[in-house]
Amino acid sequence: MQRILLMTTVLVLAMASPAAAIEGVVLINSAAAAAGGITAGDTAGFPVSLTEPGSYRLAGDLTLVDANTNAIEISADDVEIDLNGFSIIGTATCTWTAGTPPTVGCTGTGTGKGILATSWNFTTVRNGRVRGMGSNGIQILDGGRIENVEVVGNGGEGVIAGLSLLISRTLATQNGVSGIVAINGQFIDNRSVRNGNDGIFASADSVFTGNVALENNRNGLWNFFDAGVFRANISNRNGGVGIACASCAVTGNTVNVNQGSGILVTRTSPIINNVVYANTGPGIEISARAVAVLENTVANNVGIGVKFTLGASASGGYGGNLIYSNTGGTVTAAVPELGLNMCESNTTCP
Question: Residue 342 forms beta bridges with which residues?
């Protein structure tokens, strides 16, 4: 009993003390932020400056009263921040409005970021929430990891990152710009919902697996340039294209009721086993050569079901697809069939 009481007393004192440490993990709460000295060079108040590699853990919410102040600034490689179920809370409020396209409007915005590491690599953030920052919720550089985080109602991007990002099980919603943005990386089992620009955007060479993008202002999921993989994602009711990419493998996705094309590819890409339904543009739109469109269900789109912009010169083809009830027709004429397709109620396509 005495041992239990002693351990409890030590833990309570550690939680109450500014910048206490437990087993090498530095604890941060509002008292520690106000006192300063969490690491060398950290001054009193916000931002909390983390100038040394190591593990840091929130022991309470951090609440800011200024939209132009950062909550945590990182100036070292290899920093891990466990939000520990707590929140970083700013002054911004963002509201989503349905429309064509849907929009997000924010008040109380500024330049303040929740977690900022602009010149340092290998930052990890996990297990909590960053809400209402004046600008971006989390802004980190290369080799970062973000896991099990909610970025909600920030005035800028929910998350913005550099090269080789790994982000998983994260919710980005009602941010003023895009939900999640990176140069490249892996995006696994995230939800990006009702943001003011794209749901998830990568510049190049990224893998999207098991993500959900809903009701964002522009594109749901977008790999802008070079190779990418889209596998088993859901992208519905976005204001632009459901899935947009350059040279990508697009397999096993559900892409419905977007206000642009369902799937748009601009370079050589296999498009296989997707469900593409009730989009305002073409169901699947290809503006590249040597694209194989195989075993997809494409139905009830306002545009043509499958559009090969280059027509017969596309040198790709389609096979094994079910294409029906698209207002603009079934498929572009004179494109080779790579196997039997069902167009409307027969096998004569287009």
Answer: 322
Q: Which pLDDT belongs to residue 24? A: 87
Strand partners, 185: 165
Per-residue pLDDT reduced to its tens digit, 258-275: 999 999 999 888 999 999
**CA 276, chain centre distance (Å):** 21
Phi-psi region of 132 (alpha: psi -120 to 50; beta: other; left: phi over 0): left
Structure tokens at 43: 């001054």
Give the pair of three-digit tokens for residue 270.
């296999």
Burial per residue of 308-328, b for 16 or more beta-carbon CB atoms within 10 angstroms, e otherwise: beeeeebebbbebbebeebee
> What domains can you pick out in the chain, each with its CATH number?
1-194 (no CATH), 198-350 (2.160.20.10)
How far apart, in Å, are the Cα atoms of 334 and each of 94, 159, 253, 279?
A: 49, 44, 27, 24
3-state secondary structure of 15: helix
Which tokens hold the place of 266?
Answer: 């601009």
Write the DSSP symbol of residue 182.
E
Distance in angstroms (rounded) separating the CA atoms of residues 328 and 50: 57
Mark out the alpha helices in 81-212 (DSSP H runs). none
